[in-house]
């Protein structure tokens, strides 16, 4: 089975939300690399996700869910 055939089969198994997320990922990756030959040769993410990464992401998502965020202007003001 070719890579495209495997991809088609995998797509058929996605639910509606997974399909939307996957499409967004593919479009972003294609658009980011389309104008730069160097970027086209670099993996999108060449570092494996660690347990610490996953913990930090979970912590950030929980903070967002609790409303513990600031807007961009406030963040810029804080950094000045």
Q: Could you describe the 3D structure shown?
A:
This protein has helices at residues 3-12, 16-33, 37-41, 51-65, 72-79. The N and C termini lie far apart (55 Å). It has 2 domains: 1-46, no CATH class; 49-80, no CATH class. The protein is 70% helix and 0% strand. It has 5 helices and no strands. With 80 residues, the chain is mainly α. The radius of gyration is 18 Å and the shape is extended.
Helix-strand pattern, N to C?
Answer: HHHHH
C-alpha end-to-end distance: 55 Å
Number of helical stretches of at least 4 residues: 5
Mean pLDDT, all residues: 84
- What share of the residues lie within helices? over 70%
The residue ranges in which pLDDT falls below 50 over 5 or more consecutive positions are: none
Distinctive features:
extended; 80 residues; mainly alpha; 2 domains
Write the layout of secondary structure elements.
Elements: H1 3-12, H2 16-33, H3 37-41, H4 51-65, H5 72-79
Question: Summarize this, please?
Answer:
With 80 residues, the chain is mainly α.
